[in-house]
Design a protein that fits this description.
With 106 residues, this protein is an all-beta fold. 0% of the residues lie in helices and 50% in strands. It contains no helices and 11 strands. The chain is elongated and about 60 Å long.
């Protein structure tokens, strides 16, 4: 399966409570159909005391944002988004931005 959103892409949330926010993709989780976005979906998790961690404690964890709720940002200055397509040329496959007149994505 081809990946349309990859690590280090800039994406924009297009629906939900965080609609309109942009961020950099930290990781793509294809089995969970989600992405981890820098600064978004961070939850505060509390841990009970155990033998490994006798005092217990807390830490921040990332929760994935569904892939269907994000769009690739093509132009960072204006915040324009686009769907991602593919083009094959001379045996190589490259990603293209459909709304940006099939401009190749670096």
């Amino acid at each position: 399966m081809a990946r349309r959103i990859v690590k280090n892409d800039i994406v924009k949330v297009i629906s939900g409570a965080k609609k309109g926010t942009t961020g950099k993709v930290v990781a793509v989780l294809p089995k969970k159909n989600g992405v981890l976005i820098e600064g978004l979906g961070v939850r505060h998790r509390h841990f009970k005391p155990s033998q490994l961690n006798p005092t217990g404690g807390h830490k921040d964890i990332h929760t994935p944002v569904p892939l269907g709720k994000v769009a690739l940002v093509v132009d960072e200055k204006t915040g324009k988004t686009s769907r991602v397509g593919y083009k094959k040329a001379e045996g190589t496959k490259s990603r293209i931005a459909v709304q940006a007149k099939n401009k190749e994505i670096k």
